[in-house]
Amino acid sequence: MFTKTSAIDKNVYFKSVVGPGPKSYHSIETSYEKLPVTTLLSCDKPVYLSAASGISLLVVSRDLQGPFEKFILHGTIKVLPGTFYNLTSVSEASSINKKLAPFSTENETALHEAIEWEPIAPAVHISEIFTLYYQVKKAPYHFGPEQHRYCELTIVEQGKLETVIDGKHYLLRKNDAILYQQNQTHTQAVNEKDTTTYITVLFDMTLLDPQFFNRIFHLSSGQIAQIETFIRISDEDHFPYKNDHLIARLKLFILSLISESNPYPSKASSMKEKYDQDLAQQITEYIKENPEARVIDVTHHFGMSRSNIQSLFHRFVGMQPHAYIEEQRLKQAKILMRDSSYSLTEIARLVGYHSLPAFSRSFKNAFGYSPSSYAKKLYKQI
């Protein structure tokens, strides 16, 4: 990100001024294209530069060897004598008005190495999300090998999932994620008796950076919250700009896989933030493992007040604790229905409802259809 010249109070290169500069100075209109800076100019007297059209990038230095600083030209500046400078365009084309003093001498010097600049443009592009679904598998389960032209994100919620990518074995555990490239041969298998549940997202993405692939990422509490919000929005029928939200959130999550596994040096206050994040993750894990728990049970288990827990949920989960508990109960109910080993009455009891009617009301309020309708739909898909 570049700073506007008008936002700089004091520096050794230029000063922002009001007006176009002295009338006695000679005026020159100069146009620029999006090209590297290969030469630097310098003048023995002040030079006035005014933005005319488009967006121009100003490169300045006090020495031909650098260091070089970059600013967006905004308004009018007075370039100080002895400053090396030049401009290029950030937009497709731009123009400026330059004023030189009478009898001034301006020199142009070629650089040994051109000065390039990185445009603020995306390197990751997700054009479409094809599908998002839960998988509930028990041993022995094996799928593949397969390959397809789209990317695939797999996140394990519970249990263990074995995968082989181009002949190399990986073992994903709870809250682990892996990203398959386009046309990458892979398999998935469950070989232990415990039930494994995992999320699969299939999407079209342009991303060539190898550090995103062929590795397991263990998700932080923030990333888990990101995925839960992503899933929550995908279930909403009338969410404003739903598809844009889903694509933007998926892209943000994928970028977080690298940024959170290679963190920048943190501020001193981040130790408390990290502690709170870990605590929020412990609480959400407790709720997932104990779907019958109420908010008061959570407060007793963690020795915290209701208001402190609400504050943590507001910061790291984005919803109230009681709403999160309800969401996790119904989510677990859907998983158990896919397992097809339990009756609806048993499922209602397992996820913390005291009666089937109470479970049915909550389920229909959340999804718009009854548990029995959902179970019948699953049966037809088998």
TrEMBL record:
<dbReference type="Pfam" id="PF12833">
    <property type="entry name" value="HTH_18"/>
</dbReference>
<dbReference type="InterPro" id="IPR037923">
    <property type="entry name" value="HTH-like"/>
</dbReference>
<dbReference type="InterPro" id="IPR014710">
    <property type="entry name" value="RmlC-like_jellyroll"/>
</dbReference>
<protein>
    <submittedName>
        <fullName>AraC-like DNA-binding protein</fullName>
    </submittedName>
</protein>
<keyword id="KW-0805">Transcription regulation</keyword>
<dbReference type="InterPro" id="IPR018062">
    <property type="entry name" value="HTH_AraC-typ_CS"/>
</dbReference>
<dbReference type="InterPro" id="IPR009057">
    <property type="entry name" value="Homeodomain-like_sf"/>
</dbReference>
<dbReference type="InterPro" id="IPR018060">
    <property type="entry name" value="HTH_AraC"/>
</dbReference>
<keyword id="KW-0238">DNA-binding</keyword>
<keyword id="KW-0804">Transcription</keyword>
<dbReference type="InterPro" id="IPR020449">
    <property type="entry name" value="Tscrpt_reg_AraC-type_HTH"/>
</dbReference>
<dbReference type="InterPro" id="IPR003313">
    <property type="entry name" value="AraC-bd"/>
</dbReference>
<dbReference type="Pfam" id="PF02311">
    <property type="entry name" value="AraC_binding"/>
</dbReference>
<feature type="domain" description="HTH araC/xylS-type">
    <location>
        <begin position="277"/>
        <end position="377"/>
    </location>
</feature>
